[in-house]
Amino acid sequence: MAKPSIVVEVAYALADKQELLRLSLPYGTTVRQAAMQSGMQAHFPGLDLANSPLGIFGKAVAKPEERVLEEGERVEIYRPLIVDPKEVRKQRAAKAAQAKADEQRR
Questions:
Q1: Cα–Cα distance between 8 and 21 in angstroms, integer?
Q2: pTM: predicted TM-score of the whole model, two decimal places
Q3: I need a surface site. Which of 2, 59, 80, 95 has the fewest CB within 10 A?
Q4: 28 φ, ψ to 5°?
């Protein structure tokens, strides 16, 4: 017997504000559909739910338009990256190496 609906959560956060909304949606709802139906735009004007990267419990979903949700899952709406994390690590490593070299010269 098919389940008529599922309960999921949709989360979005900025540095100073976060929202976690609980939704009851039809069985067969996709990750993208849940985000679009969450009403999160009312809390965060300008949020582009049609193009935002999405995930479930901290793991990015490659095809949110295809991935069907299961009972109790939490959809997470991700912000676009401002800086590439790999680049930040490279810069930090270079700075540490320079500091070590400066220390050895003293």
A1: 8
A2: 0.73
A3: 2
A4: 100, 0
Neighbours of 8 (CB within 10 A): 22
93 falls within a domain: no
Per-residue model confidence as pLDDT tens digits over 3-26: 689 999 999 998 899 999 999 999
- Domain containing residue 25: CATH number: 3.10.20.90
Gap between the Cα atoms of 76 and 97, Å rounded: 37
Angle among Cα 42, 46, 49 to the nearest 5 degrees reads 80
Read off the tokens for 74: 């939490």
Structure tokens that stand for 106 in this block: 């003293």
Q: Domain range holding 71?
A: 5-81
What's the number of domains the chain is made of?
1
Calpha distance 55→87 (Å, rounded) = 23
In a domain, 95, yes or no: no
8 A C-beta contact, residue 97 and residue 32: no
